[in-house]
Write a structure and sequence with these properties.
The complex is a heterodimer.
Chain A: H1 5-19, H2 26-36, H3 57-66, H4 77-88, H5 91-103, E1 108-111, E2 127-131, E3 134-145, E4 152-158, E5 169-175, E6 181-186, E7 195-205, E8 210-211, H6 217-233, H7 235-238, H8 247-260, H9 266-269, H10 276-283, H11 289-317, H12 329-348, H13 364-371, H14 382-392
Parallel strand pairs in A: 1-4
Antiparallel strand pairs in A: 2-3, 3-7, 4-5, 5-8, 6-7
Chain B: H1 7-23, H2 26-33, H3 41-51, H4 69-82, H5 88-102, H6 105-117, E1 122-125, E2 141-145, E3 148-159, E4 166-174, E5 180-188, E6 194-198, E7 208-220, H7 227-262, E8 264-265, E9 268-269, H8 274-302, H9 308-334, H10 345-357, H11 362-373
Parallel strand pairs in B: 1-4, 2-4
Antiparallel strand pairs in B: 2-3, 3-7, 4-5, 5-7, 6-7, 8-9
The chains are: A alpha+beta, B alpha+beta.
Chain lengths: ~425, ~375
Amino acid sequence: MSINEEQVRNEVREWLKENWSPNLDLVEWRLKLADSGWGMANWPAEWYGRDLPVSLVPAIEEEFSKIGALTIPKSGIRMLAAATILNHGSDMHKEKFLKRIITGEDVWCQLFSEPGSGSDLAGATTKAVMVGNKWVVNGQKVWTTSAHKAHWGLLLARTDMDETKHRGLSYFIIDMNQPGVETQPLMQMNGHASFNQVFLTDAEVMPDFQVAELGDGWQVATTTLMHERRAADSLRSWGQASKGDGPIYDQERVETETTMQPYKWYPQRAGRVDLIMDRAKETDAIKDPAIRQEIAKLMTLHKSAEWTARRARAAQEQGKPQGPEGSLGKLAASNVARAAAKVHTLISGADAMLTGEDSPMDGIIAEILVSFPASSIAGGTDEIQKNIISERVLNMPKETRFDADKPFKDIPRNTVS
Amino acid sequence: MKFSFSEEQEEFRSFLRRFLEEKSPTTEVRRLMATDAGWEKEQWQKVNTELGLTAIAIPEEYGGQGFGLSEQCIVLEEMGRFLLCAPYFSSAVLTANAILYGASEEYKKKYLPEIASGDLTASLAFTEETGAWDISSMSMCATKNKNTYRLTGIKSFVLDGHMSDLIIVLAKVDDNSGSQRLALFSVDSTAVGLTKNLLNSTDQTRKLAKLTFTDVEATCISSDDVTEAMHKTFLKSCIGLSNEMVGGAERLREDTLEYVKMRMQFGRSIASFQVTKHKATDMLADVELAKSAAYYAAAAFDDGESDIAATASIAKASASEAYMQTAINAVQMHGGIGFTWDNDTHLWFKRAKSSEVFLGTADFHRELMMQSWDQ
C-alpha cells in the first residue's frame, strides 16, 4: 500500500487540532468534515472525500475518538442513498444530495418492498409513467423506516410492463413532501410501529431525478441492498452516541435517539440470550432438570454460532477466501432467537402469558416472545437464505424460474398492488 | 488461535488428508473392521513412524513433539474423516493424558516415550459395567499386599482394551489416613488373572473390551489422588473426540452432497428439489457450528482458559448432536441405497452413534455445562 497509515494519522491529528471544538454546532462541524474530506475519507476527493482506501477509515476514526471528536454516522438509510448516488447518480444528484447527507439535514427512506413483493423484490408493481414532462407514480410501498420524517425516498418502480421482470424496473429519487405521497405507520404484532406504509397516488418525479438509465433499476437497487446488508452488520455499534459534554454532543444524542427509535425492540427480536441465566436463577427454574437441558441447548447453539461468526471474521481479516462458515450467520441467528424465546417461556412459566408491566422485567420478556419471529423474516427469510446458501456455497442447482424470459405483464402475481 | 489455523497448521492438515486418503480408503476400513484386532500393527507403525502422530502432543521431555491439543485435534479430525482404524485415541489421547497428568515422574518417563514412539499401545480402563463416565462413580478398589497391589473387578467399554500392550486402570485405594483416594495402576496385558473379552460393538471401527480382573497384580503409578488429573484427561479427551467427530460429520456431509447432485429422479437431479437444498443447508450449519465449537475448545484448552469445563462440554454436546443428525440425514438423502451394507454411509453412521455415546451423550454434557455455570 502506497499510503502510509502513520502519515494519514498525523494529517488527521493536525487537522483536528486546528478545527475540532465541542462548542461547534453539529451541522457546522459536519460541514467542515464535508469540505475537508475527513468525514468520509474513502469517498472521491471531488465529492467530499479524500480518495483514501476504506481500510484506513478505522485508523482515522480512532484519531477522532482519541480526542472525543465526532465522526459522521456511517449507517442509516441516508448512507445507503449516498452509496447509491456515488455509484450510479449524476453530477447533479451528487451536488444536490451528498453534502446534506453528510450534515444529516436530510432524512432519507427506501421505497422498495411492496405488499405484493417481499422476498421477490423485483416483482414490484408500483408504476411510473411519463405524463407530459414528469414521471407520475402510483402504487404502495411497505416496511419503510422513517418515511414520515423523510425528505427524499429511494424508489424502485416499474416503467415497462412489456419488458422482462428485472429489465422493466427503474430507479428514482422522489420528493417525499408532496400531496401524492401519504405515509401511515404499520403496526407490528409486537405493538411497535417501526415502519410505514407509503401510498403513492399520482406522485410526481422530475425526469432528472431518475438514477442511471431507464430499465437499470434492479441493478441500482442491488447496490443499495448490498450496502444495507453491510449496514445491518454494524447496526449495534452505531446505536451508541459518543460520550462527552457540550452542545454538540447533546445534538448528536438527540439525533441518534431519533434514528434508533424504530430499532428499540431489536435486541428482544434476537432473543436476549444475555438474560437467560439470571432469569433462570431468580425464578428457580434453574433447578428444573428439563429446563436445565433446554438452557444448555440454547447456550450451545448461541456459543457455537458466535464462534462461527468469529471464524468468518478471522478469515476475512486475514484475506482468506470466505469459507462456508461466513454465510451461516443470519440463519444461526434465527435459530438462536427461536430457541431463546422457547427457553424464556419455560423459565417464566405462567408469567409468559402476560405483557407490559405485568410481564417479567417490565415487559421485556413479553416483547421477546412476540418479536423473535421477525429474525427469520426481516432482511431475507430463512427459506431464501437457504436457497442462496445451497446455490452459492454448496453449488446445488438453481431454482427453476417461471418469470425470467417473458414480459412482466404475463407473469402471475398477487392481486394486491 | 481460536478462530483460524496458521499456515503451518493448514499445510499439516492437507498433507495428512492426502496421506490418509491413500492409506485409509473405505475398502481398507472394511477389511480391518472385520478383524478382531481392528487394526494391524505393522501397517499402523509404518504410518505412525512416518508422521509421528502418537508423539505430537506428548511433551518433548517425554520423547514427544510437544505440540498442543490444537495440533493433535487436526490429526483427530482427519482420522475421523477417514475412519482410520488405529489404536490412536486409546493410546495417544486417553492413556497418554492420564499418565501425563496422573502418573508420578518415574512412570511418565517409563511409559510416555514408548507411547510417543508408537512401540507401546495402551488402554485406559476407567469405565465400569454401569457405563457411567463420571470419574467419581468408579467402584473398583485395589488392595495392598505388602509392596504390591491387587485388582479385582470389572472394567468395561475399554477402548482397544483387548489388544493393548499395557492397561492403565483407575481404581480406589485406601490411603494411610483411613480414607480412600483415586489412583492409577499399570497392568501388563498378559497378567495372570486378567480376562479380556472383545465386546460386540455396533461400530466395528471402534473396538471395545470388557476386562475382568481376578486378583491381578498391579503397580501403582500415581502418588497423589488423581481426581483432578482424570478430570483434565476427561476434558481433553472430550475435546479431542469432538474434533474427531466433526471430521467424520464433514466427510459424511460432503459425500451426501455429491450423491444428491448425481442422483436423478423424476427426470431431474434430486439436488434441484428445494427440500433437498434446504436440508443440505441445515447439514452445513450443523457441521460448521460443531466445527467452530470443537476448534475453539481445543485452542481454549491450550490457552489455559478458566471456563474450559463448560467449553469442552459445549464441544462434545454440539458434536454429538451434529454428527448423529448429519448421519441420519445422510442415510435419508441416499434413500434405499443408504440403508444397504455395501454403501459406505453406515460406516460413518455407526461411528456417529458410538461417538455420540462415548465419553457421555449430549444430555450428560449439557448437565455438566449447567453445573459449571450454576455455582
